[in-house]
Amino acid sequence: MPYTGQEDHSIGLEDAIAMTRGYRDSVTKPPYFWGGYFSKSAIQKILNQQGCVGIRIYNAASATGSLNYVIVGVDSSGEDLENGELAEHGQGCPPFCASHSKLAGTA
Asked: What is the mean pLDDT of the chain?
């Protein structure tokens, strides 16, 4: 299946709240890792690569067991642009959650 960069990934707020709540409720022991923040600059560097039509987000863990994500660009064949710009070191939630967000369960 070719990737165009125009795929629709829209979701309504109520569905998104239900999905994120469902995930938080399913995690019964630490470490809790519900999401992560990445800067516009980091995402833009990945998207600006030649042939990049989108991003893929991988769940990841450091050698010490710290949870995070690795973000990589994706080309129109659906392949990871592994030799290009990659991102990690997102600010994990918790502790860096939005203070008033229905998605994070803090509102």
From this structure: 91
